[in-house]
Amino acid sequence: MGCLQSKTSNVHSPEGNEIEPQLHDKSHNLYGGVVRSDYAHDCPSHPQLLTFKEFTLAELRKATNGFSSDLIVSESGEKAPNVVYRGRLDANHLVAIKRFSRQSWPDAHQFVEEAAIVGQVRHVKLVNLIGCCAEGDERLLVAEYMQNDTLSKHLFHWDKQPLPWEMRVRIAYHIAQALDHLSTENRKIYHDLNAYRILFDEEGDPRLSTFGLMKNSRDGKSYSTNLAYTPPEFCRTGRVLPESVIYSYGTVLLDLLSGKHIPPSHALDLIRGKNTVMLLDSSLEGQYTNEDATKLIDLSSKCLQFEPRDRPNSKFLLNFLGPLQKQNEVASHALMGLQKAPVFQPTILSPLGKACSRMDLTAVHDILLKTGYKDEEGAENELSFQEWTQQVQEMLNTKKFGDVAFRDKDFKSSVDHYTKLVTLMAVPTATVFARRAFSYLMIGLAELALRDAMQAQVCMPEWPTAFYLQALALSKLGMEANAQDMLNDGAAFEVKKQR
Known about the structure:
Residues 1-25 are annotated as: Disordered. By secondary structure, the protein is of the alpha+beta class. 44% of the residues lie in helices and 9% in strands. The chain is built from 19 helices and nine strands. The strands form two sheets. It has a six-stranded mixed β-sheet, with helices on both faces. Strands 5-9-8 form a three-stranded mixed β-sheet, covered by helices on one side. Helix 15 (411-424) runs antiparallel to helix 16. It is elongated. The two termini are 37 Å apart.
């Protein structure tokens, strides 16, 4: 099962018809796109991603309780001061909101344009960017919220236990995967890669912040101000190269090996003098084999070479680190000793929500039958008018045959008829997508069901039924946490609808 990529303007129906892009503009409640086969083995539990959008300042002020100091996650930078807040959007989604000074990005148009480009680069190993805001003097970025802090916190400021060796090797591999994805997306320049740029999601899996893809446009540089850790070529020329990112990755490897900050020049002296024991974190107490430690030290040395051309690329990193992964069957949160947050059980208000939460497909079918098309105001009138004109009798007959097959639980036939109907209708209705989604579920095609449920949401962005059907499909695919999120969202829109 793949992840959901949030480029809804490129979502394709099984018939190959594209959804019109204008349906997605400014729609912050839409979930992204299509089941991506290229992520099939990469992200079985990737969280749902919101479509990238431009937020208003009022929305982000509300999300942060007026930029309350109680919600500040981090503060940094004298040359380019910025603050990161924890925020909550309308649909109950936690986000991280980074607030810059206007001096950092004087050109609002450039800021929005750059953010939109970064927002298209999505991956399970990235903390994905989902929005921005440029109003007046304000410049803000909105990203997924990572609830388990930074690598810096777990590596340098741990309370209960040091970061285990296997987790350190996993972090190195995951961040190499992130860099390799950025390279394939032609985003090879990452600014100031360090332990603060690596964060941990609710599963304890490491992710690379996309904030590092946004350079400070005031001076066009935005690299580390600590010259001891800055790539040599930047000190010489002021330029950042793709190979400069590999150098910074090498400094992260040193952090992982030692559990402290070691200047690269000092580390290379120790390596050349074969005094590598000084590079290894004493708190690990021999959790690693000497062979694996030697390999990781050797990789860091390769990354820290003075000449950029002598450093490896991201493919080399992946091939080198892959064989060092020894405990793939152990979840990251277990390795790190993290407690997973309990799943929130919402108060589902409607019979449909309750039926979906208990996976009662018979009840779901009965409710969809009784509801019919009444949630789509004007849909029946439109069909009646078309019937009077006698211009689309085939479409009406196809709809009738599909509805009869759906009623009689002949779900394979209903899929066939609804598929034909989608190609005949100028604008397919949400209910048709919802009924076909349920039919796909009943014949064991959960991925297609998920796609149709998302299509129904595109047609009606705040329709609880679309969220509940996505929850059913996600649950069938074994993505329980994401299914629960969808149930929560459906319940939230039930409340909004009642109000």
